[in-house]
Amino acid sequence: MSTFVILLGGDLTVTDRLRAQVKGARFLAADGGMRHALSLGVVPELWLGDFDSTDPDLLEKFTAVPRETFPVAKDMTDGELALNKAYQLGAKRVILCGAFGGERTDHTLLHLTMATRHAILGRQILLSSGFEEAYPLVPGEFHYNLPEASVFSILSFSQLEGLTIEQAEWPLDKITLPLGSSLTVSNVVRGTLYVSLRLGHAILIAKPS
User: Fold this and answer.
1) Which of 98, 142, 143, 160 is deepest in the core (most CB within 10 A)?
2) In what residue span(s) does the Thiamin pyrophosphokinase thiamin-binding domain sit (predicted)?
3) What is the set of domains in the chain, with CATH numbers?
């Protein structure tokens, strides 16, 4: 499977779990997300963006990396440009590193909803800060490779119908979850977490233990 990692401008803590997840992947960097290449010890094959948030030292350090430069006034964020490029290059699975935190809450929320849009199209996509992970939840059945006792929450983007959670401290069986409900916040993994959904869209956010 062709896995692409996109380095975004949010926070990133490099853990053994994250290193294992990105091993063997192809890397793209979006603007200031290039700084994470240093902590991961990688050199992306392409650097995209308007470069308005890139440290001059990074520009000097990675002069050999090919760039695609875009105007500041454009219709997409640098992250979305990089995600689209990954799919153009044949990505079957994408990991968005540095998808959370930073100074732009709107970018964090965009990454969550953008990933969900692609999951609706049947694409595999994971968002990570190293400290936290997020998985889009769309209609279907899913198993998650999360360590025992990991804390996780499901946050809905719409009313959810037929939501089932198994192998968790607080299981649920085919419930309807209203938009904005906190019922599915702060659950705990007990085994191989299984989630199924009949209708709706949400995001599963986990803190691997």
Assistant:
1) 98
2) 140-203
3) 3-131 (3.40.50.10240), 137-207 (2.60.120.320)
